[in-house]
Amino acid sequence: MRKFFALSASVVACILLAYSCNKPSTIGSDLLPDDDIIDLLFTDSIDLRSSTFLGDSVKTYGPTANEQLDYYLLGQLEDPVFGKSSSEMYIQFGLTTKPELEDPIVEEVILSIAYAADGHSGNLTQPQTLEVYRLEDELSVIDTLYSNQTFNVNPVPISDDGMGGTSFSFIPEPNDSVMVDSVNLSPQIRIRLSNDLGQELLDSLASPYFLGLTDEFTNFFNGVNVRPADGNTAMLRMSLSSIYSEITMYYKDSSGMAADRESISFAVRSTSVKSVHFEHDYAGTDIEYYLEGNAPISPYYSYIQSMEGVGTKIEFTGLEDWEDVIVNKAELEITVIDDDALGEFTLPDRLAAFQLNDDGDGLLSVADVGLAINAGSFSLFGGQSESEFENGQKFVRYKMFLTAYLQGVIDDRYNENAIYILPFDRGESTSRMIIGGSGNPTHRMKLNLTYTKL
After folding, report:
1. Nearest one of 122, 92, 60, 66 to 308, comparing CA atoms
2. Is the CB of residue 354 less than 8 Å from the CB of residue 420?
3. What does the domain layout of the chain look like in residue ranges?
4. C-alpha 192 chain-centroid distance
5. Bridge partners of 274?
6. What are the residues whose beta carbons fall under 8 Å from the beta carbon of 315, sequence distance 6 or more?
7. What are phi and psi of 357, to 5 degrees?
8. Residue 367: which residues within 8 A CB-CB, separation 6 or more?
């Protein structure tokens, strides 16, 4: 049912009223001498045109530390508005020192993945199911990886439920510590892996030909792929930089003389390759209708989502015809539309604005974002959520400064006069939001523009 697009005559009338232009005003004329008056003009009635677009891939790994994610998503969500989203992980492990082994016999192999402190979404009270596969493709530390990439894996899972099955089911407990060998450890998922895999790795490490070099271990064990089963209800945010994210192999020597079992840990090193693969399915949702190009020119709603999800394009129609204007301040304001599922999912902490690059085949941050980053203060750009009250009603709004970008539009420096709004940390979060579109009569997006006419 396309309930978002049925507008009554009264609503249409409200839209037309909302778009009526304000008369520019002279600000501060009573504070300056007559011969020094500066005409600061203001309008909040610039014609905006919004649409929903499908997001592109996210960089998930690069050779330098600042090209890698801080957190990695794992799981699957079913959202009544945004459809199905899923994320799986690819993880490479390293060996720090060559162990001294003599005919070792594996006892148990555990893959542990540490939870992030926050950022988990969906229904965490229901059992979730994961499967682990062995990577067949090599992961190179010099490559750059993106979230639309997948790698070949052995089709036989290496996860082991201890009862002959190959899946691991659990109820997420991201805030509860885990007891391991009488020691409390930070919250983590602990997945049992196949003993056959463990014995193969032990035999390789015990070989006289194994020297313990950095790349030697990854040459015969490329890593693992951890993926959610269909039907999961939660998206978990994991910390692969944690010391608790590793594979631990427990073993004894073949003589059986040792009283206690020994262990070897294969850590996720800072140089280990780590990546995620995202998928989205909008079948049957209103978003599918929007993406098929059926939305009106000035839609009632627009959509923003993390991962490779949808974003909002905003066109500033008519500004390219302005001349001899200095933009003193340009602030874009968008309002969140409440929906029934909002309590189960999170809003973005911050939004970012992008524009088409010179080649027209990718997005880059608008100048205002770059200036804020270089100055070390995101407050120069904004983009974070703010709660406001009007007539006793609470609204959540996001405001961002686009002063430098809008000056570039007026000066005709860009390929198009449009920006693309996405969550700032979209590769590491499961945030989503419905916002008032350019045709919304009560929650429409608007541009607060203060300028000087030369």
Report:
1. 60
2. yes
3. 3-57+282-453, 61-281
4. 28
5. 91
6. 48, 49, 50, 51, 416, 417, 418
7. -75, 175
8. 404, 405, 408
pLDDT in tens, the chain (454 residues): 333 333 333 333 332 333 333 344 444 434 444 445 567 999 999 999 999 999 999 999 999 989 999 999 999 999 999 999 999 999 999 987 777 887 888 999 999 999 999 999 999 999 999 999 999 999 999 999 999 999 999 999 999 988 888 999 999 999 999 999 889 999 999 999 999 999 999 888 888 888 777 678 888 899 999 999 999 999 999 999 999 999 999 988 776 555 578 888 999 998 899 999 999 999 999 999 989 888 888 899 999 999 999 999 999 988 888 989 999 999 999 999 988 777 778 899 999 999 999 888 889 999 999 899 888 888 899 999 999 888 878 889 999 999 999 999 999 999 899 999 999 999 999 999 999 999 999 999 999 999 999 8
Angle at 107 between CA 110 and CA 256, to 5 degrees: 150
**E-only strand ranges, 14-97:** 40-43, 48-54, 59-61, 72-79, 83-91
Distance, in Å, from the CA atom of 163 to the CA atom of 168, rounded to the nearest integer, reads: 11
CA 252 to chain CA centroid, Å, is 43
**Nearest-angstrom CA–CA distance, 407 and 231:** 48
Residue 170 contacts residue 75 (beta carbons within 8 Å): no
- For residues 69 and 423, give the distance between their C-alpha atoms in angstroms, rounded to a whole number: 15
Please state, in angstroms and as integers, the Cα–Cα distance from residue 124 to each residue in 186, 238, 244, 298, 333, following that order: 18, 14, 21, 37, 33
Which sign does the torsion angle of CA 187, 193, 195, 196 carry? negative
Q: What count of residues does the chain have?
A: 454
Q: Token digits for 92? A: 């490479």
Q: At what angle do helices 403-410 and 367-375 cross, to 10 degrees?
A: 140
Pairing of strands 310-316, 418-423: antiparallel
Name the one residue in this structure whose structure tokens are 């839209």: 15
Residue burial 162-199, b: 16+ Cβ < 10 Å; e: rest = eeeeeebeeebebeeebeeeeeeeebbbebbbbbebbb
Secondary structure class of 367 (helix, strand, coil)? helix
